[in-house]
UniProtKB/TrEMBL annotation:
<dbReference type="InterPro" id="IPR001478">
    <property type="entry name" value="PDZ"/>
</dbReference>
<dbReference type="Pfam" id="PF13365">
    <property type="entry name" value="Trypsin_2"/>
</dbReference>
<protein>
    <submittedName>
        <fullName>Trypsin-like peptidase domain-containing protein</fullName>
    </submittedName>
</protein>
<keyword id="KW-0812">Transmembrane</keyword>
<keyword id="KW-0645">Protease</keyword>
<dbReference type="InterPro" id="IPR051201">
    <property type="entry name" value="Chloro_Bact_Ser_Proteases"/>
</dbReference>
<keyword id="KW-0472">Membrane</keyword>
<dbReference type="InterPro" id="IPR036034">
    <property type="entry name" value="PDZ_sf"/>
</dbReference>
<dbReference type="Pfam" id="PF13180">
    <property type="entry name" value="PDZ_2"/>
</dbReference>
<keyword id="KW-0378">Hydrolase</keyword>
<dbReference type="InterPro" id="IPR001940">
    <property type="entry name" value="Peptidase_S1C"/>
</dbReference>
<dbReference type="InterPro" id="IPR009003">
    <property type="entry name" value="Peptidase_S1_PA"/>
</dbReference>
<feature type="domain" description="PDZ">
    <location>
        <begin position="293"/>
        <end position="370"/>
    </location>
</feature>
<feature type="transmembrane region" description="Helical">
    <location>
        <begin position="27"/>
        <end position="48"/>
    </location>
</feature>
<keyword id="KW-1133">Transmembrane helix</keyword>
């Protein structure tokens, strides 16, 4: 049929040429679009570069410029470095004591932490971890070996204990300066929380406070402590608190269980003179005042108002021929200051004595009959046994009634 033949034959070239024309037109449109997009992008860049910039709102500007020193000592890398450096010097300490119970004498196991002070085996810890002088303890070293140790010095008032093991070639930790630390500095604690199953656990935080007083702890009034939010748990006691340089700035001792992030350490500067003398001579003896006394705040809880705002130590008795007697200290005097240090409690006064040696002279400020007086006190080799609590109270209470 003719119409079909024309469509399939002569009309096909026409159809073919139409198709080529349409395709060429599509390419032109596509290239036009591409050049338009490129031109728009270039124009935007030029406009952005050469047009004036809008002013930044004052509220969006940083309020504090970053410090020039780009070293951030609280970064995780520092904690990692301190941990790797200090870990070989941290030890586990286990003790075994016998306690009388309803079932008879029973062995009680305890554990805590400590750290190496010298290459020849001196180890520092807490008194409540190692016990009294002469006690035997077991020390677990970083290489998992055990050594028997002996407590060569211990003081419950300061909660410090020094252990000696017969071993050489140990890696000691360097002591820092706890008087130069600041609130906000990095603090790293290493110890054995909840026993030796979690030995050498590392926690980190900052120094949260200085010269803290936390009341009755382990039977003592603990004061002058470093506060940190680095986690300290049972078993951490006796372990080191370290600064960002890996130096010991404190001995971890206690945590307030009723709150989170409240751990406390004994400043290392408190322990330094003791440690040095024990390591040199094998023992340490502090000077003695030759007096008995009680914390004013504790006495005032019995109903007395001593007029010092709860501060100071009231003298309950003075021993003859003692430095206290020679300085003119009397019963009922309230010791407010020794040297440059304000005295808050009897335990603090005892700790203050560790700073002095025989021959040293110090000013002691006392409240006497409502007035302040300054006495000149010179320490000697005088040593006197502690007056018992009942004897001290017998002397103290009658004096208050006069």
């Amino acid at each position: 049929m003719e119409p079909n033949r024309d469509f399939g034959g002569e009309n096909r070239p026409t159809s073919y040429h139409y198709g080529r024309k349409k395709k060429r037109g599509g390419f032109l449109i596509l290239w036009a679009l591409i050049f338009s997009l490129i031109g728009g992008a270039v124009g935007s860049v030029v406009t952005y570069k050469y047009m004036p910039k809008p002013a930044v709102s004052e509220g969006l500007k940083p309020q504090v410029e970053p410090p020039a020193d780009k070293t951030r000592k609280h970064e995780a890398g520092v904690v990692e470095s301190v941990a790797q450096y200090a870990m070989p010097s941290v030890v586990g300490i286990t003790t075994s004591t016998t306690k009388n119970t309803l079932m008879g004498p029973m062995a009680v196991q305890g554990s805590g932490s400590g750290f190496i002070l010298s290459e020849d085996g001196f180890i520092l810890s807490n008194a409540h971890v190692v016990g009294a002088k002469g006690n035997k303890v077991k020390v677990l070293l970083n290489d998992q070996s055990e050594a028997e140790g002996k407590v060569v010095w211990s003081d419950e008032t300061m909660d410090l204990g020094l252990v000696k093991i017969e071993k050489k070639g140990l890696t000691p930790l360097p002591m820092g300066d706890s008087d130069s630390i600041n609130i906000g500095e990095t603090a790293v604690a290493i110890g054995n929380p909840l026993g030796l199953d979690f030995q050498r656990s590392v926690t980190s935080g900052v120094i949260s406070g200085l010269n803290r007083n936390i009341g009755e702890v382990q039977g003592n009034y603990m004061d002058g402590l470093i506060q940190t939010d680095a986690s300290i748990n049972a078993g951490n006691s006796g372990g080191p608190l370290l600064n960002s340089e890996g130096q010991v700035i404190g001995i971890n001792t206690v945590k307030i269980s009723s709150a989170e992030g409240l751990g406390f350490s004994i400043p290392i500067n408190t322990a330094k003179p003791i440690v040095e003398q024990v390591m040199k001579t094998g023992d340490f003896k502090s000077v003695a005042l030759g007096m008995s006394g009680y914390t004013v705040s504790a006495v005032e809880r019995s109903g007395y108002d001593l007029g010092t705002g709860g501060k100071g130590v009231i003298v309950g008795g003075v021993e003859a021929e003692s430095p206290a007697a020679q300085a003119g200290l009397k019963v009922n005097d309230i010791i407010l200051k020794m040297g440059d240090t304000d005295i808050q409690s009897m335990s603090q006064l005892r700790r203050e004595l560790y700073k002095y040696k025989a021959g040293d002279t110090v000013d002691v400020v006392v409240a006497r009959n409502g007035k302040k007086e300054t006495l000149k006190l010179t320490f000697t080799d005088y040593q006197v046994p502690a007056v018992g609590q009942e004897e001290g109270l017998r002397r103290l209470i009658p004096g208050l009634n006069n």
